[in-house]
Design brief:
The protein has helices at 10-29, 34-39, 41-68, 76-86, 91-108, 115-124, 126-148. It is mainly α and 149 residues long. The protein has one domain (10-142): Four Helix Bundle (Hemerythrin (Met), subunit A) (Up-down Bundle).
């Protein structure tokens, strides 16, 4: 039976997408205030959707990474935590990353009372998300390089 492999390049493509969304958030939304967010419904939607896209991509990347390593996860949070552990992140960072799955669910399911808090909490974890994406990208590039040898 052939070995199962996740679609080659999928992690790298998803990291590129995540990076583009992170750049958009930084350039267009990171400095927005609660007042800006509250008074502009269209801006709310753009910010919410961008953050949701980033978190969904992060979960998808983590799941693909675990699959490539032959590791199962029980939930989005578990996938994030296990991926962070494999990347050598601290227990605190693993827990922080796992908590992002709740933020994604709040946005995806439109929990109206928590949207701004979710955006702010995400914003505080952007550096951690960028670090995970960088570590995974380096790992994927190294893996591809080794396969060519």
């Amino acid at each position: 039976m052939p070995e199962f492999r996740y679609a080659r390049g999928r992690i790298v493509d998803s990291i590129r997408y995540l990076s583009e969304e992170m750049r958009e958030f930084q350039e267009d939304y990171a400095d927005r205030s609660w007042l800006d967010y509250q008074k502009e419904k269209k801006l709310q939607k753009l910010i919410d959707r961008t953050v949701e896209n980033i978190l969904t991509a992060l979960i998808e990347i983590s799941g693909a990474f675990l699959t490539s390593e032959g590791i199962a996860a029980d939930s989005y949070g578990d996938a994030l935590k296990k991926a962070a552990g494999l990347l050598g992140l601290s227990e605190t960072e693993q827990s922080d990353l796992a908590g992002l799955s709740l933020l994604r669910n709040r946005l995806a399911h439109r929990y109206l009372n928590f949207r701004w808090q979710t955006v702010r909490a995400f914003s505080e974890k952007r550096a951690l998300i960028a670090r995970v994406a960088e570590l995974l990208l380096k790992r994927e590039q190294l893996s591809e390089k080794n396969k060519k040898r």
